[in-house]
Recover the amino acids of this structure.
């Protein structure tokens, strides 16, 4: 029987988690139900709930999304259905149709995709798909929320008669309107509407001349509103018929309500089912927001949370864009109690609360933000003593309150209990309080309880070192800056860095030295030794991390070099093959050239043919007999090698060409030549003056003579001075 005290839930801020889950619920009843969530008392029920949430979460990662489960609360309608001779309004009936359609769509979906959601489908088995309510309401109510004319024969007749009467009223009113308008008895507005009836706007002086019922007048008294006598009789008839129509509608709604009343238990199931689905959906969305998973459950009583995040801290930091440090912590049979020590502001309390809150969440059917290789177990009772518990109402000091808590712990603690105590033993004389705390810890140990405590007491650190199933742990600090690293290290106690922190915050060294003399020398040395060990541990951590990173880099570089070497070797082999092939072809070409030259000299065909035949035979003797397919493969390979070689050559050619282009001097823009400039021919030395330019031809005066030349052949020597 699982029982988690309300104080533990408050200590771990479980209500804040519920508030955050509530934001993800989409129905009013779902939001209310989320706030009532408590850890499950039954283990089987808890396991089912966790699987439901996990299956719902998986729907966000595939194309088969579970249909929308939103609904309007029908609690009022369910209460009315319990009372005889009551009837539901059309809006209420529409809500029942809507909830029926929603449930049916989810049930059909879960049946269709039961391979994906087996447990959710099993959860919905107790509810049947039923369309009776939908069909009956649809037969009576139209899509605009009005009762259909054919809902009953009497209603149909009444509405036909009403429509005829309304036509008569309109025609008789129009007739009276025209008559009195022609007599100039009416005001400019002619007509108005009073009490949902059309009335004539009669000038006050003619009110006695218009027959009918006076329905009112204007504020100024200049107009009197009169319903014509001709329409009065029809209006009375219409009132009677509308009353009968209303009575018939109520009768139809009563009959329909009596039919729906038969499905009261089913409708209650519908609402409960959708509320439960809303809770499961809200839990799944909350899990998605912090990458939470369903970890494995260990068969024996042990737990190991890898890369565990505190949900509230993680989501708060995520909103601010800040980093959250995860923790890895485990409780096994051989290390069932962990004593965390070290200076304040290092993350001890957060680590304690992370374990506690995640345990409460998993036992309340929620997924938790941990690494997928984590595993958890269940505890029958979770006890906590966290924060300042000074009780003003009960006139108890912090220490008195904590002693009261310890007494409660001693009564309830057993091998199925998880206890969480922050700042264990504080609130009294350090020596006496520490001794009492040590005794309490020994009792918890003897009862084989699991737990995590945080402390500054040296005797508790020593006890953890002496007993086999208790382990020391500390939060790492940077030994130079004394800044927290927010990383838990199991196996070593942490120094409180009391004097180091004081020195860092500017306290004079003389005062610190004086303080050291006031306490036992052994205690100072003990704390100093722990501090030194912790600093060494910190250095080793960094060195180990650095070595691992270097090792990874070297392995990666070795792999790359091996890959490059293999590629180079392959290319060398390919180029060697190409070279050998080309050498053979050069040799054959040389032989053919020698034979050709010999034939050119002696013209002996017979010897030529014999030489050529012998050459072919020698070459063929070197060849292996291969199939056509192998020939094609060899040919293809040779082509590939040649293409690759050509590509390499082409790249080299391009580079050379680019280098040449770069080396070329940049041509200066050609100056514009105008009439009056001193010019000369490109290949000449004589300088003349440009007299005229016409159609690309230039006339140049050299003094002794003039000449016509192409303008392109001239170059500027000196521009004409302006």
């Amino acid at each position: 029987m699982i029982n988690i005290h309300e104080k533990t839930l408050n200590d771990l801020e479980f209500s804040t988690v519920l508030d955050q889950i509530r934001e993800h619920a989409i129905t009013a009843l779902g939001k209310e139900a989320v706030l009532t969530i408590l850890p499950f008392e039954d283990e089987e029920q808890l396991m089912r709930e966790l699987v439901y949430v996990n299956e719902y979460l998986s729907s966000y990662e595939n194309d088969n999304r579970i249909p929308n489960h939103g609904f309007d609360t029908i609690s009022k309608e369910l209460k009315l259905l319990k009372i005889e001779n009551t009837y539901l309004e059309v809006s209420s009936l529409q809500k029942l149709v809507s909830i029926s359609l929603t449930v049916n769509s989810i049930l059909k979906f879960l049946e269709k995709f039961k391979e994906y959601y087996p447990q959710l489908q099993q959860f919905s088995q107790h509810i049947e798909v039923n369309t009776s309510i939908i069909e009956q309401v649809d037969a009576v109510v139209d899509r605009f929320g009005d009762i259909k004319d054919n809902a009953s024969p009497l209603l149909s007749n009444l509405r036909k008669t009403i429509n005829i009467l309304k036509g008569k009223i309109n025609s008789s009113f129009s007739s009276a309107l025209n008559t009195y308008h022609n007599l100039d008895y009416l005001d400019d507005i002619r007509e108005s509407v009073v009490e949902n009836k059309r009335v004539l706007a009669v000038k006050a002086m003619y009110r006695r001349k218009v027959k009918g019922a006076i329905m009112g007048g204007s504020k100024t008294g200049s107009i009197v509103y009169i319903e014509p006598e001709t329409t009065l009789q029809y209006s009375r008839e219409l009132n009677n018929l509308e009353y009968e129509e209303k009575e018939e509608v109520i009768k139809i709604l009563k009959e329909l309500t009596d039919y729906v009343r038969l499905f009261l238990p089913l409708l209650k199931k519908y609402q409960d089912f959708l509320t439960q689905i809303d809770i499961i959906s809200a839990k799944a969305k909350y899990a998605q927001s912090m990458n939470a998973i369903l970890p494995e459950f260990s068969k024996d009583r042990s737990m190991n949370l890898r890369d565990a995040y505190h949900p509230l801290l993680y989501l708060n930091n995520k909103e601010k864009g800040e980093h959250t440090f995860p923790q890895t912590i485990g409780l096994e049979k051989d290390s069932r109690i962990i004593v965390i020590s070290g200076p304040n502001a290092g993350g001890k309390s957060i680590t304690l609360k992370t374990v506690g809150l995640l345990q409460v969440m998993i036992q309340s059917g929620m997924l938790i933000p941990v690494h997928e290789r984590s595993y958890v177990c269940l505890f029958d009772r979770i006890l906590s003593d966290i924060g300042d518990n000074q009780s003003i109402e009960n006139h108890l000091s912090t220490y008195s309150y904590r002693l009261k808590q310890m007494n409660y712990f001693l009564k309830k603690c057993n091998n199925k209990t998880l206890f969480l105590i922050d700042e264990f033993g504080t609130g009294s004389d350090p020596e006496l309080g520490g001794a009492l705390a040590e005794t309490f810890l020994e009792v918890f140990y003897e009862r084989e309880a699991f737990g995590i405590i945080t402390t500054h007491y040296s005797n508790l650190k020593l006890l953890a070192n002496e007993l086999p199933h208790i382990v020391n742990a500390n939060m790492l600090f940077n030994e130079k800056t004394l800044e927290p690293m927010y990383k838990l290290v199991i196996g070593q106690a942490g120094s409180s860095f009391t004097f180091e922190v004081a020195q860092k915050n500017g306290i004079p060294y003389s005062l610190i030295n004086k303080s050291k003399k006031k306490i036992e020398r052994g205690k100072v040395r003990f704390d100093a030794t722990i501090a030194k060990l912790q600093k060494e541990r910190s250095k080793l951590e960094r060195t180990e991390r650095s070595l691992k990173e270097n090792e990874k880099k070297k392995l990666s570089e070795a792999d790359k070099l091996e890959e490059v070497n293999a590629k180079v070797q392959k290319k060398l082999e390919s180029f060697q093959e190409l070279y050998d092939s080309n050498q053979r072809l050069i040799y054959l070409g040389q032989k053919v050239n020698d034979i050709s030259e010999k034939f050119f000299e002696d013209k002996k065909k017979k010897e030529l043919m014999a030489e050529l035949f012998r050459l072919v035979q020698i070459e063929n003797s070197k060849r292996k007999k291969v199939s056509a397919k192998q020939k094609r493969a060899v040919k293809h390979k040779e082509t590939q090698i040649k293409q690759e070689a050509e590509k390499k050559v082409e790249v080299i050619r391009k580079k050379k060409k680019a280098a040449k282009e770069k080396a070329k001097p940049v041509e200066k823009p050609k100056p514009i030549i105008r009439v009056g400039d001193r010019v000369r021919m490109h290949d000449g030395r004589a300088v003349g003056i440009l007299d005229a330019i016409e159609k690309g031809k230039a006339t140049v005066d050299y003094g002794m003579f003039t000449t016509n030349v192409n303008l392109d052949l001239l170059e500027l020597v000196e521009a004409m001075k302006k």
